[in-house]
């Protein structure tokens, strides 16, 4: 028994126990367990407490009244704290927040009713926990995670904000930082996530899964790295995420919290604590009610169950008789449920041995046994009455009523042993009839102490144990030891254990021997009570005499009264207690007056139809114990009450004990304690048949769900295994219909979601909803279900309409898919006929259409679209606002596709239609903003690019309604933009080349660079538009390529014209140097040609290279013309040099005069310097290497062709002048070496012209060398110049006409003639 609390704290907590009709009750008048027959009379309607009022009629069992008359609205009979008011103490407040939330708006009477209802529920729950026989705790439920609270969400946001700002000290790469930054901005800062956290539907695992799914897409896009797998990167990122998420918290603390959770299988003590918290029951109240209900007594609990089941059967029979129109299917279902409970109880094993009853498994029935129906049980009872002539005796097997006792005997010591010497060896033997004999250790007679234990097993309720004392024989020939004494013990299992001195019967010893023995006889579990009684009956126990009676449990529903003789294992007489009732007898039966002794006897009897047995005990306590034991065995509804005289005796004893235990307690405290016990006893001993268990269970389930939703785990409405186990046991034990139970639960879930905005798992709702219709359905259940179904349908439609806010980022996982499945079930007309797919589709379509409106309205309200449209904001600000709205719309639809598209897999076309409606609403605001834009303003193109890039990548929205509307809106603007750009580029070509200075700018001139940039920018802009309509896109591409070709050709013509003009201005002699301007013009043509492919080639089609080929050919020809022009000019200079050298030819006018001079290479050096300077200029200012090489090859080849023509063709038979030989030899050698250094290939350098010219020059040089050698070896020879001077002199001395002219010529040339070393 648990210790009861008694202190001033009790007084403070017990204000609810008093009522207005209660006065100060003396403890001597309190009856904690029993009452007089007058106390059992029915209470008046005003006095009946909650749920103890009688039903209007038995028919209410079949068809209940409206649930609005439930227990929650019915108060107890006015209970007010009279003692508190009498003592002047203020009223105490509600002891728990849950009670405060419920009872703040209730009157004091209603609060008292609520409190007593909770205590009554706790009594029923305690009985379910103490002796479960219908249900077991489930172990296959999904493990629940810790949920994130709003305070924790703020901490998580701060931790990630610190990491994003770089203050966490966690080393991370840029990719991980970007992922965390996106996670923080999109998920953690989302208002939908905050709302989900407030609703208790977001767990730590949800936060982790969202981040993991995000980084999986990012890691998948990363390039492969040798030696580093993507799985390694993913695990590393998740480890860093956990570090950021956890912060400075100890990870072991989270592990301990996850381990110590309510999802585990709970013990009975843990279940008691759990429902004390659920029902707000104080610990000392639990202790009092635990003791009053005798929850530690399994026999009492089994008897209580039998009484409950019999009461349910009786109520069913009454209802069947009262309602003639009750359908038999309901009656059969109800009786089958009771039969199943009886079978479960009968299947609980009854242990015959001595195992402790507290260790028996009482929760799970043995389902392999065939359950007995109600009719079979009745037949079995009738056969027991009529089948035996003795009456009441059933043919039980011997093993079923066998009793197995364990007896422990400990021999401690013997005293007064003087008849033998002190050194003599003595010992004891212990013997049970028909059992093995045990012997103690040997000890000296002076110290005869052993402390030896012997264990015996017997089936005799009244065994006999013999203990003998022996002295060891000292004679050599003695065969037996000497017996000094013996004692015979007759133990019983009801006798108190302890040491006891027994007087031994001495045989050959004159000493007064005493032996100390401890005897303990354990009571077997199937023996419920035993003792000596006077018994007399009609058929059994016919003679009135004293018998040793044992109350034996054969099974959970069968008990027998058996009488045993001493040292007998088989009962002498056996009587079954089936259909018996026990009660007190207040007077001695007349038939026993003559046979009773003069001693006072305390009578009671067991009565059965056609038979009765009278019993008499020796004292009142023994009688009450017997009556209570038989009362538990019979399972009768009527509880026997002891006579008034016995009650007064017990009360006086209780009062005296209370005075002794608490002498300082005041009369007020005693009255309060008495009142407390009276109230609790009223609840403990309430008649369960009069309780509205459906209404009570409705309240219990509501409070349990409220407690579950407030625990630290993300349960989503799923009860813990312990809670579910107790509720299952409650429904089975007290007959709460499963259909009604799940309707109530569904109603509670709807209340939690609608009133408190808590997140409930739709799968759980689906489970409760699907349970309706299994078995019979009552009218009240049907009406209640229709109301709940309507509420559920409205809730589901609202959830689908606002699916982004009820299930943000797809959390809770699978909730949206479960909602769609539940909606399909709710739309069914009945539980058999499936709903038409078109009807489900219509409902989902309606929700998604409304969802599009809701989603866009929230975005519009967030962006202040109405204010922007109606205000006088600048056009650029309006455009930025609408672009921002478009970005938010795209983000919303991307989230829908990523997190919700899978749930709408069966309605994917409706989700596409939802997106089109969403965009159509955006199109209205977009059109308004575009209309406010001034003409020829291109700020709206980024909006088109943003929307078109999203739409063209979406296979469902590509070429949809909004996409086509977007094209129709922006196509005229694109055409207008291209027209204006074409006109602008054409004007820039005309004006630019007119003002062009031909200074280097990039790869060409300033005008060409600007032209190419504009063309490239225009084409890139049009390309970036990614126009979705292929015909218009091809038209734009063709137009842009044609325009680019025309512009490039026009620029090339203007450049060629300027080139020709500038080249004509240059010198035609060796002082000519190719100017920078000419090089820039040359580069401009090259640059224009290099851009032909990118600007003039179409993206596709048969004519994709049409403009590219035409323009390329034109610019190629233009480039060749410029090269030829430059080469022609260079060759013109070379021709001038050759003309100067031609003056030394024989037969020329001044050939004789020029032949006088000494041969020099001045002309050759000048030309070589000219070539080197221009080569350097070309190399420095012309950027196209291939073109430079081509120019050099052409120039080189042209020069040697000219030289070949000059030497071989024109002077094939004439010898060259030494001066000519010197100059040409120098020119040939330098040209070959210089052009070789510029990269001219050997094939070009060693052309035929070069070989012919080189051969001729070498021959001329050889001839000249021979001639000079002959002249130097001839004596008196004169030099050619000297001879020429002499001839001129002779001519001058002659008198012929014209001599003066010749003399003057000679004198003028004398200055040019070299001085000869020879004689004149």
From TrEMBL:
InterPro entries: C2_dom (IPR000008), C2_domain_sf (IPR035892), CAPS (IPR033227), CAPS_C2 (IPR057457), MUN_dom (IPR010439), Munc13_1 (IPR014770), PH-like_dom_sf (IPR011993), PH_domain (IPR001849). Residues 526-635 form the PH domain. The keyword Calcium applies. One of its GO terms (cellular component) is cytoplasmic vesicle membrane. Residues 20-29 have a biased composition (Polar residues). Gene3D superfamilies: 1.10.357.50, Pleckstrin-homology domain (PH domain)/Phosphotyrosine-binding domain (PTB). One of its GO terms (molecular function) is lipid binding. Its main location: membrane. Keywords: Calcium, Cytoplasmic vesicle, Exocytosis, Lipid-binding, Membrane, Metal-binding, Protein transport, Synapse, Transport. SUPFAM superfamilies: C2 domain (Calcium/lipid-binding domain, CaLB), PH domain-like. It is found in: Cytoplasmic vesicle membrane; Synapse. Residues 388-502 form the C2 domain. This is PH domain-containing protein. It holds the Pfam family MUN. SMART domains: DUF1041, PH. Residues 90-103, 1282-1311 have a biased composition (Low complexity). Residues 1-50, 83-109, 1270-1320 are annotated as: Disordered. Residues 924-1055 form the MHD1 domain. One of its GO terms (biological process) is protein transport.
